[in-house]
Amino acid sequence: MGNNQYLIPANSKKSMLILGFFNTMDLIIFSTGCVITFIFLFIFKANDLKQAFIIIAPALIGAFLVLPVPNHHNIRTFIANVYNYFSGRKTFYWRGWCINGKDKR
User: Fold this and answer.
1) Which pLDDT does position 12 carry in this prediction?
2) 3-state SS record for 10-79
3) pTM for the predicted model, two decimal places
4) Can you tell me the distance from the alpha carbon of 40 to that of 37, in angstroms, rounded to the nearest whole number?
5) Backbone angles phi, psi at 4, to 5 degrees
6) What are φ and ψ of residue 77, in 5° steps?
7) Which of 17, 57, 64, 101 has its CA 20 to 30 A from that of 43?
């Protein structure tokens, strides 16, 4: 590499994650869903497919939230970004150095 050009690997942030995949909140969400599902498996008896799906739903929801997606860390951060976008401010007023702080429209 000459001329001060550097190549940064695309996965350079993975070393800061647990197992290269989870952050702390992801592990809490996923493990809580799995523990609740495990408890439900001991408490309830599934007689049909609908009941079985309800019993394993906490683990499925936790796994869905920590599922990785492109350009975001996972589904949970994607949902948070979409919420912040739609609930955030939509009108931006120019406040530059040439206006002197007055709103001229």
Assistant:
1) 60
2) CCCCHHHCECCCECHHHHHHHHHHHHHHHHHHHHCCCCCHHHHHHHHHHHHHHHHHCCCCCCCCCHHHHH
3) 0.64
4) 5
5) 55, 40
6) -70, -30
7) 64
Say whether pLDDT at 65 is over 70: yes
Q: Which two tokens stand for residue 47?
A: 């007689």
Q: Which H or E run contains 99?
A: none
Determine whether 37 is exposed, middle or buried from the number of CB atoms within 10 Å of its CB (0-12, 13-18, 19+). Answer: middle
Of 34, 21, 39, the residue nearest 63 (C-alpha)? 34
- Asked if the model's pLDDT at residue 99 lies above 70, the reply is no
pLDDT of 75 above 70: yes
Q: Which amino acid is at 57?
A: A
